[in-house]
Predict the 3D structure of the following.
Amino acid sequence: MNAKNILSRISAKVLKANRLRNTFAVIAIVLTTILFTSIFTVTASWLSSMTESDKRHLGTAAHGEFKYLTEEQYKTISAHPLIKDIGYSQIIGFVSVPGNHSLSAELRCASNEWVADITYSKPTVGALPEKENEIALDTIMLEYLGVTPQLGSEVSITFGLGNEEKSGTFILSGFWEGDATSPASIVWVSKPYSDKLLKDYEPVFEEDPTGKYNAPVMFWDSKHLESKFDYLITDCGLGNAGVRFGISPVYHEVKIKPAAVLMAVALLGMIVICGYLIISNVFSISIANDIHSYALYKIIGTTNKQLKRIVRKQVLFLCFIGIPLGLVTGYAVSCVVTPFTFRILNVSVTNISANPLIFVVTALFSAFTVFISTYRSLKLIKEVSPITALRSNESTLNKSKKVQKSILKPGKLNVLRLGFANVFRYKKKMFNVILSLAFSLILVNISYSLVNSFDMDAYISKNITCDYMIADSALYMSNHLYVENGLLNRDRVSDILSIEGIKESGSVYFSEFDLEDKRLNARYLELSTDPMIADYFKSSFAEKSQNDTFQSHIYALDEMLYEDIRVLDEKLDWDLFETGDYVLVSPFLGNENVRYYAPGDTVELTVQSGKTKTYKVLGTARVPDRLEVGHSHLPNPEFILPSKEFKELTGNTASTILALNVTDSEKEEFEQTLSDYCENTGEITYVSRDYYKAMFDGEKQMFVVIGLTLSLILGFIGIVNFMNSMITSIITRRREFALMQSIGMETKQLNVMIFFESLAYVFFTLLVVLTFGALIGKVAIAFVSSVIWYVTDHFMIRASIVCALLFIVFAGLISCAVFSNMQKKTVMEKLVTYD
Amino acid sequence: MSILVAEDLTKEYGVKPNIVKALDHVNLSVGEKDFVAVVGTSGSGKSTLLHMLGALDSPTSGCVRVDGKDIFKMNEEERTVFRRKKIGFIFQNFNLIPIMNVYDNIVLPIMLDGKTPDESFVKKVIEVLGLSEKLNNLPSNLSGGQQQRVAIARALATKPAIILADEPTGNLDSKTGEEVMNLLKSTTKEFGQTAMIITHDEKVAAKADYRIRIEDGKITGEK
């Protein structure tokens, strides 16, 4: 046997002799690992689900796509070695679904299954169409077309081909589950069919994509996609052919926000501290108790390096048990918590990541925490003099202290005093335990306060200010903006307005037009000298107009909705606005402090009908997001008019959104009628105050679940630390207690003394929590409320008081349990055994 | 030739003006294979002297040379290694590792040095000390005399240049004490080692080749 072996054997023996310590250490390691695993799993799941959800929303998982290729071009490109996978989906036309505006479907022909797969449109039942009369489509389309999803069913569709409307009847060769969140469906037909259809097709305009190939591409890796596309096009000799491509935003380099990094670092740091506080305490206490033996090892010639190895080996062993246990438990916890987390993040796909990297990184973080936690113990060992072994056991405490004031005052024995004094005998341990307990309580406080800080009114008023908002289904299709489709049908509006219970109503109107203003061009030129703003122009689709016309929008609101307008100037004179001679103008999109017009400027608006009127600018204001059409902010100025003036100017009388307030007593009935009506027509959607209330409750619930899980684990860590300190302290002081009993201390007195010791911990913990902890909590909540707009600054300490009471109960239980266990021996037996 | 030399060895405890001189300019030298007793009343400084000579504690001033090497010129790690090679300790309270059995206790210092125990030598030491039957026992199952014999075996097993014993019979009854002393003397002679025994018991000291008397931290006589 060599020296290394003997060290392993010593470690093994020490491990065996410290069962209680091992248990606490393993619990501590497991808890720390659970925290790390949860954080990493939730984050990784979130990232992967976000990506997956983005891909689905985009309708493709490919790195990118060549657009509008000819067959020839496709053949050249697809042979290039840079490409791992490629396929085409030939553009034919749009399938129309009568009576449903929100559903759009493209008629395509796929080169192979891979294309269908990567565009999330691969038949799960049956296969892609091969024969001329075959077709494949998703279940949502099938439902709208009134076809039962069954292979061989007959499917009739009408579709647009160029300027013509065509129709056809096919046999269903395959179908798949439709995704309601996906913006567009694909309907596959066969190559023979498309060839026949497009044989004599003449393009109807210059860049007519009909019959062209869109080719999704996967390269061997996702790095530098843009240069890969560029290189490929040049290399294929298509540099001048005007080949267009699009890179999937999913693969764009992720820009990490500093706030997110800060949060992540804070969270990880918090867990490291938490783990450190408990693990370090467990080891320090154990090694302080064993210090006599470590001194002994030194006497017989064990070097510090060897002692370090002995400790390290033990730690490694405990890690080998604790970390895998923690990984498994933590992963299980994450599987429960992750879906709750996703509720708030609007991620439709729940992918609980099982990336092995999570486990590796978690294990590394846990091991790191454990190893830094042993630093203090190792220092303790390094500093101990071999002579310590020759002294009695007590010499390890308070080495530096030569004298001690009497803790016993004349008169009756004050057990409380004695208990408190005992706590102060071990200052470092006390400091650690109190810090660990306080840390848990502070975090419990913060999560409790956070949950209570959720401001439902703020949340709802951001999304809706009236009881109901009604719009055409197409309006909410985020990336399709066909205003013609987005307008509410006037018959529908009058139908809805006839439902009983409506207290008041108001409409939003919208129109696109070209703004002609020479001053604006100069203003853009001026703005683009500001680097921040210039940057914005570069990344935005907005470009300086060549002929002084700018794409712009006019919004108009009924009076009921005036209070929803976000006024960015000092107060506006609404009476002046009502006259119809004034207009409100939006500020620059990238920076609301940048204005295009000053109040009092005049601006000439020429609408699509050709009508022109000159308005005076009343002030700067913006229509809130919830009343806008799609997400179609323009960087150019947008205008707001009173609805009466808007109708006169544009001649448009159809509204985009209808806002309603309903009498409370008739709300239920109204809602039922409205919901039935919307379902029957299929064209109209509505959102209500109650809908956002439910959303809010969902988000709040998520924080409750996460906060509760976190608090539970942290609280548990605190309690384990506390228990370890108390139990080990009682065990190591058995002789001291026996001595006290031998000189006449009653068991009851001893019990009370030990209980008071525990109480002292709780007392000082509360002291820290209520002073220092309250400060941290206030800052933390203030920070969160500045980040999440519907959190109001609302800090509470109620939770920590409740937890403290819980600690007191534990304190009582521990002191009784451990002590009663010790009472089985006589005083003399104890004095001898514990010597 | 002297194997153990102390020059001007001084150890002070406390701070001014309450300085206690545990050792006051002690000079001594011990020859190879000597069996020496250090005697003195309790508090005279004899244990302190032993701690200094054995490099367990460092002096305020002065130097100690073991086998010609100044042990306080080494750093701590070097000193530890040097100590486990050259010096064997025997203590009044035995100081055996409670979680290891007799055999492990005996060979532990050798193995810590990264060496394989010289089995035949270790076996001989064990036989001489009458421990053959007890090798698998834990120290807590042994009597005081047996524990001290294990400690002696441990001290001898590394074949150190010097054995330092601090009141080796202090925790034993007089009969066992005498047995242990006889064993200690015969084994050190047999294995050719130098030994220094600290004791306040004249009967124990009488077994030594010569005595060094220490009083108030100073050497007051040598015979």
Summary: Chain B has one domain: 31-47+75-222. The longest strand of chain B covers residues 2-13. The two ends of chain B are 18 Å apart (CA to CA). Chain B touches chain A through 29 residues (CB under 8 Å).
